[in-house]
Amino acid sequence: xxxxxxxxxxxxxxxxxxxxxxxxxxxxxxxxxxxxxxxxxxxxxxxxxxxxxxxxxxxxxxxxxxxxxxxxxxxxxxxxxxxxxxxxxxxxxxxxxxxxxxxxxxxxxxxxxxxxxxxxxxxxxxxxxxxxxxxxxxxxxxxxxxxxxxxxxxxxxxxxxxxxxxxxxxxxxxxxxxxxxxxxxxxxxxxxxxxxxxxxxxxxxxxxxxxxxxxxxxxxxxxxxxxxxxxxxxxxxxxxxxxxxxxxxxxxxxxxxxxxxxxxxxxxxxxxxxxxxxxxxxxxxxxxxxxxxxxxxxxxxxxxxxxxxxxxxxxxxxxxxxxxxxxxxxxxxxxxxxxxxxxxxxxxxxxxxxxxxxxxxxxxxxxxxxxxxxxxxxxxxxxxxxxx
Length: 388
Ligand code: NZQ
Ligand code: ZN
Known about the structure:
Strand content: 5-15%
Bound molecules: 5,6-dihydroxy-NADP, zinc ion
CATH topology of the largest domain: Dehydroquinate synthase-like, alpha domain
Order of helices and strands: EHEHHEHEHHEEEEHHHHHHHHH
Radius of gyration: 20 Å
Distance between the termini: 37 Å
CATH architecture of the largest domain: Up-down Bundle
Largest sheet: 6 strands, parallel
Helix content: 40-55%
């Protein structure tokens, strides 16, 4: 296990009715806030009303930025920064899924930076100061509610890039499983695939074993395998929604990744796919991840796939190792398909014409990707072609 510093300052209010904590959290932090929301869901399903009621009770005034799209755009970030500066906003409240939270984090970073906020994503400029951010989460997927990352797309150049900073870790997040009841089957399933993929990125990594992290990782995967189909079939089941929601936060809050050097190749490839084709991130991962697994399976990585097959899928230890590894990958593919997610890029209208450029862009921004197995531009094209 490598050395690490583990610091999660986010206060989590988890469970039914926890929105009641919002007023006290805001009241002590700001007089005026920016509420950031997506296109329609939070207003349509009454979550926005709950938020505004608590904000008013706390006698905090607010301005609003709405219309943040999935795969959030830099344009919304610029808009938010302008509002914050003009209105002298002291706090940002994200009410939504990962896209809304990521846009809010980028706004928070941009407000206190004199240059262009895109510098954080492209020039490696370190973000050391930001407006505080809090979240009311409405979709289980990204873990953004409890982590230091934000992913934004620049529309004109079709680049989707991430930046990370401790300054944008949410100071609090309210996680009420009932707020996720209205998420449709497709986005629920995509969220489960995203959560599992975050676990895979930390599990299949360097060093290949860190027992504490790996056993927690396997537990989270089993929770997703058990409750994923339940939340897709019965969207208003509290226990299942609660377990998936909490698994999502734990999968990418640092817990599994500390002491290891995560792989993140599947994410790098998927970000390129959703940058160019604007598909849902979790659906993209459901297509890419099993093909990434096939592509990196070799003598050196075999043991880890066997561990995964036996501990997570309960495949018999007695079988040949290569058989266990292949069966584990097939089970992963079949599981995503059973949730109704696509298994091929062609199913979501993607053709291979941009694959060369996409691989080139990835390598230009990140260099060779992957730690479990390093991937070159040629390898990326190969995985994309396997996924067609
Ligand atoms: O736009 P609205 O109307 O709000 O609808 C959203 C959107 O269409 C809808 N939705 C959200 N909450 C809902 C709901 N519909 C009904 N009821 C509710 N309660 O769901 C759709 C998808 O929302 P989005 O926020 O885009 O989904 P998700 O949470 O999966 O976020 C995806 C984004 O996060 C990035 C992805 O790349 C993508 O851009 N990621 C961020 C990470 C991070 N910050 O750590 C890590 C991830 O790996 C990921 O890259
Ligand atoms: Zn993800």
